[in-house]
């Protein structure tokens, strides 16, 4: 940490700051300059909690933090990529994973037919929402436990692990009973009680990035889960909120190489929620894989026009086949086969 | 709702859209133009859920929604301002309310001395956090129930109603036992399970605006609470997240006149969290009142440099006195006395 | 400046960075810590241009700048507030200034009647656009020199100094011939050729903040003007572009106290462009003055519904009278009379 | 256009709006609904300029525009992709183009060696800045005409067309004398005088997206150029400004499929400026091509650590070779060979 003193700071001000730093058990390194003095702090193991205290002292202009506030999620803590394995499907390994399925579970026929269609095309994890976070209280709120049961049936039928969202601490046990992966939605990325609770389950957690989350916030939310003992965290970029209005969100693919440097956790990208336009999903899936992500999450619906939620951003099964064909070509160019594609499997 | 057809749409495309609209029990009003046809939909009572279905039909370029998706929160539903009264303190009435106190409750002495100081200066509601939403899992997480007990003791001592944050459904009953007003934080603005749960209590709820929340999202979250039967909702602007980095957030005071038109709910502004700089709190409190807000929420701490959270944005009690003096002059210029100021009380 | 080394940096990496710093004629202050070493740089007079060079050296994780990159605009360079005086009207002094008039000059009658109306209400500077920056090439582009002539006539008639926008280097001489203050629009805030050119005139310049300008960018643009020798620069906040869509822009009043600390230049706020809604102008004018701004810029039109530009955000003259009455009460509460109001003049 | 009346609007209000619409020579289509009436306007050829007038009428709640305000740039106006050809290099055709070179021209040796290196790797257009838009007046401002002469020499030597930025109307003739393509920078995207002026040259123009530009703003700026007669406009995405701080900007690749639908103009993406980190350029170049862009603009410097500008985001020539190899694999997967790559040329 660096304390920058004001140009008008007195020697007494500077001395007082040094004394406080030393009282914290740390070293103060005074660096006088022609216009102002800076004081470097060394000796700390992690981030310094008392930064605010220094910032309020007389003559202090700014306090600049240097140490990253997260630990378990960082590449410095663990250098090798985290690979999460569920029933033979790997997330974060050398090959790619595709999670697909309907936004909401709407019924047996809808879910099972979609599950079979996405499996045939090469998806290896089935998605489907039973508890739905909806902006309006008057929108369809999900089938609840009935939906979870259908999800379990679909897993039985197809052999695919299933991922579904959990919205509240009180639902965690129930959802964890049925789901192979717990999904935390963008609007709950900083629901700290929920983060802690899923950190105490032994289910992998996919943590979607909040609408206005910085990388630091996001990694600290992952740290909440890991600090409770659950090391199986997957990060999912799903679009951020900016001034831009051409699509539902701004799909921040440039976060992928940055995350790769900072963390060992697997990275999934979700072009369906990010763009909100089915026409953009195919090109942005290609781009997501080319940016270096470990996989995709895609919404597929047998009849998007009649979907109970997110129909505008759902793909017809036949278009999902086309997507998988195109993504496979990009995946080949990246030397990362898609798990679940016969051709890829044969490589 | 208005369906805008593509320039190349065929008469069959147009007819198909009209048929679907009529199948919904609504009227389709075809408006042919020189370059494209638009179809107005009438006959609906509220927002039309099936918009996505229309958007995906052949020849449809865009679907434009006209009806606001919220109802109970709207001025059209209830014309008169909602006034919430707690132990003789009014929120949303002709006179102004000031909520003040420490960010976190840190101990008996800290809370009680702050409570007495802010009361003496004219605050009428005491704030203090017992459960703290912190970005990092390694930061102080609040005193929990012990903090709530101290809050109740401070109420006893000063007579001031108390407001404190609730972060999770499982805490609602506990917090509601001690608090007069439940606060929902920015990061929980779209925690829909929590919104519903506090909607089923009979405590007033102060709903802070999310960091990237539009007015529509915010009002729909308030609608979640009201739809469960709780009509006592207070809106609190606390800064939004933008590219701007001079302050902690961007304090969006221009939302105040817009909310006034759209909703009957009371509006509080929080310059402490919005700016994150104690130097900005005084001028932005004046500005907040001048913009037409119904009151302020201000963080006060007897020793900000040693605060366990948010010290940088906390005011010393003596500076809070100065704030109240200056705000009172603005309040007078607005003909809205501050409840709790002797002079105002005398009016 | 502080160079933060990577946890894995070798002693040779650290030595190499120190050598480069010393080759620049500066001092390197090595601060070894338990996880990583930081190197403080001292001895520089201003910002260090070679930062990029250091950032690319082996073992360097980050380079943190400490020194503000601007100089002439800063409060450290000049402590006293800059006061600009034009024909007896002061901008940035103890009393407030109101600039008002139509968005575009549309004709003799329109301009002169507006000028007289705003003067009667207490405005002391007349605004009016002759060259208009319009998003669409098909929108009205302004009356050009004919408009400037009308502006000069209005000044003659009313005695008010006039402000008008200049959009291009080739127009600067022409506009400077007629205008008392040159306005640079938000979209030209980083038109560096234009900044330099107006810096070589002897007319005061009002520099509007760019739609996505940070404070640093804005002050550096002001520095461009001052570095050419023109010290009379006025800053004008007119709304920034964020995700927020309830108003035309997000009116960032919290920039006012921040600017006050960093710079000695006068600060004007423009609620007309910031909000784009005539209903918001009155409350946000009050808030702007309460935040500590030195004055307002307001659009007034005798018949907003027929205005050739920005009708939605223009006030009728009678509403402008109401605005001045309300703002005067706030101004009184701030002990800052409005120049041009009889009552204020009498103080 | 759709006029939405207030719930409380009277029949007289509605009639008055219809009369105004008919006075404009257009048709008013009244659509009464249970809560409010909407009035559809038909008969207009383009966008309706008088929208503001209607919005200010009594009883009007909102005016919703339907018609896109641009024309020449739109796919509806011209269905086939625009292909720009310069000395045998195509921009916007079936094969891809790579523009590369240093940020700033710093000298003969630097420019010529970079030009030869990027050509050898498969670039077909040389970039290099002679007039530099710099945030600070104290940063290097470019070599000016001397730089342009070096650019012409590099073209002579390598046969590559050259692109360089023009910052001001007064420089247009000079720059157009030397450059094959005129570049308009992000900060000048709404410098309307400059847009008009380059629209009157016969040089292709590459228009970079503004930092906070919507797609509509961007296309309207392109329309300014085309409306003056210059049909050769290239759009370049170079990162937008958002709350996100992990990279220099937020690289908005999801704009690519949206632009493809709306416009026939070629689309280039610039990962160097968008991310500001050389480590991100390689993955984001792959992603840019996979998203469907027509080409890349990349900064290359023989010695980034000593670059006079943008060293942090410049690639060493050897890394540019690696980039081209990886991008070629993605290009092959897209069936879009890179002009200038031997292998691609052989296909």
What does this structure look like?
Chains A, B, C, D: Residues 1-67 form the DAHP synthase ferredoxin-like domain. The structure is a homotetramer of 347-residue chains. Chain A folds into two domains: 2-64, Phospho-2-dehydro-3-deoxyheptonate aldolase, domain 1 (Alpha-Beta Plaits, 2-Layer Sandwich), CATH 3.30.70; 84-346, Aldolase class I (TIM Barrel), CATH 3.20.20. The first copy, chain A, is built from twelve helices and 14 strands. Chain A has helices spanning 11-23, 51-55, 108-121, 145-158, 172-178, 192-199, 215-227, 255-262, 271-275, 278-291, 317-333, 342-346, and strands spanning 2-5, 27-32, 37-42, 60-64, 84-86, 89-91, 97-101, 125-127, 162-165, 181-184, 205-208, 233-237, 267-269, 295-299. In chain A, the strands form three sheets. Chain A has an eight-stranded parallel beta barrel, surrounded by seven helices. In chain A, α6 links the parallel β10 (181-184) and β11. In chain A, α3 runs parallel beside α11 and α6 crosses α7. The longest helix of chain A has 17 residues, at 317-333. The model of chain A is unreliable at 343-347 (pLDDT under 50). Chains in contact: A-B, A-C, A-D, B-C, B-D, C-D. At the A-B interface, α2, α6 and α7 of A face α2, α6 and α7 of B.
